[in-house]
Design a protein that fits this description.
elongated, 18% strand, 8 helices, 6-stranded parallel β-sheet, single chain, SIR2/SIRT2 'Small Domain', 238 residues, Rossmann fold, 3-stranded antiparallel β-sheet, alpha/beta
């Protein structure tokens, strides 16, 4: 049974109506990164940071998995499939993917803002879309913050992601501009024998090595084509 690893980014969720951060109409056009997405921003103005991510969480709850999410989940019918995502939404899980590694966190979860708790693996499910600074606190009494990796913070899941990519028979990059470090480096971790694909409207070999097959289409268009090919090649494991 082949081991397929998916690496998804903002272009995947954009087709579900979730705003990206870096496009011309993205979230960073309306908010300064240093005001809402750094540890220092939380220290200066936690109310503003909480409002920003509450709004993001609300948009995630209102969104639905698109066809690309659904097709990725269906890969599990004939292959081992791990998803590595830079997205902080839970659309892969809601589509049915069972093995999802969130590099930048999951906005449906919260964690303590206590000193030293930055990389704690204790998470708290968020009921609904809103976290409240006065109401929602950890057992030590510190307000809960979003479970997201802010600028200036390390990416704790990155080492695990490297291990998954290094074991891949087939590696598929979807909807990523591949400009965010260090996670963009994952594309160079695949084995020499790995079959690799890059699905993105702007896919070219300036972004990925020649080992990658380019599919210059949207996430849903590219996954429809690639899923059909994969399903024909591999028998259903059931």
């Amino acid at each position: 049974m082949p081991k397929i690893v998916i690496f998804s980014d903002a272009g995947m969720s954009a087709e579900s109506g979730i705003n990206t951060f870096r496009d011309h109409d993205g979230l960073w056009e309306n908010h300064k990164i240093e005001d809402v997405a750094t540890p220092q921003a939380w220290q200066r103005n936690p109310e503003l940071v909480q409002r920003f991510y509450n709004a993001r969480r609300k948009s995630v709850l209102e969104a639905q998995p698109n066809l690309a999410h659904q097709l990725i989940a269906k890969i599990q019918d004939f292959a081992e499939c791990d998803v590595i995502t830079q997205n902080i939404d839970d659309l892969h899980e809601r589509a049915g993917s069972r093995h999802v590694l969130h590099l930048h966190g999951n906005i449906r979860l919260a964690k303590s803002s206590a000193p030293g708790a930055q990389y704690s693996e204790t998470f708290y499910p968020v009921q609904g879309w809103e976290l409240n600074l006065q109401r929602d606190k950890c057992p030590l009494g510190y307000p809960l913050r979003p479970h997201v990796v802010w600028f200036g913070e390390a990416v704790p899941a990155y080492k695990h992601a490297i291990q998954l990519v290094q074991d891949a028979d087939i590696f598929i990059v979807i909807g990523s501009s591949l400009v965010v470090c260090p996670v963009a480096g994952l594309i160079h971790e695949i084995p020499a024998t790995c079959e690799a694909y890059y699905i993105d409207p702007k896919a070219d070999h300036l972004r990925v090595p020649k080992q990658y097959h380019l599919i210059p289409q949207t996430a849903t268009q590219g996954m429809q084509m690639l899923f059909t090919q994969l399903k024909e090649r591999f028998p259903n494991k059931t």
